Amino acid sequence: MKMKKRIKQGGAAALALVLAVPALTYQSVQAATGIETDRSCSVEFQVDGDFAELKTLDIDVNLYKVADVEGTGAYTALNGFQDLGLDKVSSETTAQEWEEMAGQAAELIHDQDMEPAERAVIEEGTGMAGDLDTGMYLVEARQVQSPEYTYSFTPYLLSLPNNYYSSTGDDTWVYDVTTGLKPEQELRYGSIQINKTLDSYNATLGETTFIFSVEAEKENSQGTMENVYSDVISLVFDGPGTKSIEIGNIPAGAQVTVTEVYSGASYELTTAESQTLTVTAEGEAGNPGTVSFANTYNGENNGGSSIVNHFGYTAPENETGADVENAARAAQQEGTWRWTQHRDSTDIQNAAEE
């Protein structure tokens, strides 16, 4: 009869449990039986965490064999993996060291473009890989994306067979293992494009400015809407025609409302004052989404102009991208802020693209 127990991979603490087997090499007096090295093993994968939408996504999992295992529990690294140090593991090997070995194994596999020993597909939160030889495997789940999020999984080492001696005192070898995949969730971002058309123009009045507010809301984990983006955009015209500006770094799935809050001193809207759209992630159909506004000369003789103040932040070398995106946090770092003035928001966009 097959024995099936669950081994959970969910961070450093759980990783230590998954990789507790090597310690039995040095505690063989407590093992009831040796490993049946010619026996077939299997792994059932389950997705841990509270991200319900992951059960709607297919996740590809690759298993790469990195070492054979002897009946005593000692490991012999396969060709190309000798530098991992699996022959030196003991009860003193820490979770961090196991994590570092897994990372090193993943780099070796990618550098050499190795083929996996087995593949599995997780559907609706579970998947299975069977008919596996005994030994040590690197488990690597491929990154997946939903319309609004990217999910990544840290690779880890898994021994087949395995047991729970370190946590339960039970030294029975488990040949049919259940293990968890712990996902990390990251927001995807997208863009919107504002199109502005001025169909008639009074040259005597000179340049005219149109100003838009951009506000984005997205539902948070508590089920309430919160503001995730806010900005003011200006477009300056010196004649009739159409100008466009793209606004990026807005969380995918956010509801964006663009409102023309100033329509020029002598011009009036011929379209709706506010327009709403949902942001689609970069690389997806519908990105960038567009809103379009149109104005016409209303016969009055009032002129007007504007200047856009732009504050640019230069991060220190040791600052991460996440710090740069968070202006409040960035202000506390040792980077520098630079203030410039521009004719309108398209000037800022063009400068950033150069």
Short description:
With 354 residues, this protein is mainly beta. Helix content is 13%, strand content 45%. The longest helix has 17 residues, at 95-111.
Task: Please tell me about this protein's structure.
The chain has 6 helices and 24 strands. Strand 3 and strand 4 form a beta hairpin. It is elongated, with a radius of gyration of 29 Å. It has 354 residues and is mainly beta.
What is the annotated CATH architecture of the largest domain? Sandwich
CATH homology superfamily name of the largest domain? Immunoglobulins
**Strand percentage:** over 45%
CATH class category label of the largest domain: Mainly Beta
Instruction: Give me the Rg, rounded.
Output: 29 Å
Number of helices: 6
Report the order of strands and helices: EHEEEHEEEEEEEHEEEEEEEEEEEEHHEH
CATH topology of the largest domain: Immunoglobulin-like
Outline the secondary-structure elements.
Blueprint: E1 4-7, H1 12-18, E2 41-47, E3 59-69, E4 75-77, H2 95-111, E5 118-122, E6 126-132, E7 135-141, E8 144-145, E9 149-153, E10 156-160, E11 162-164, H3 165-168, E12 170-174, E13 176-181, E14 183-187, E15 189-198, E16 208-219, E17 225-237, E18 241-251, E19 255-262, E20 267-269, E21 274-278, E22 289-297, E23 308-314, H4 321-325, H5 327-330, E24 336-342, H6 345-353
Parallel strand pairs: 1-13, 2-13, 15-22
Antiparallel strand pairs: 2-6, 3-4, 3-5, 3-7, 7-10, 8-9, 9-14, 11-12, 15-18, 16-17, 16-19, 19-21, 20-22, 23-24
Helix pairs in contact: 1-2
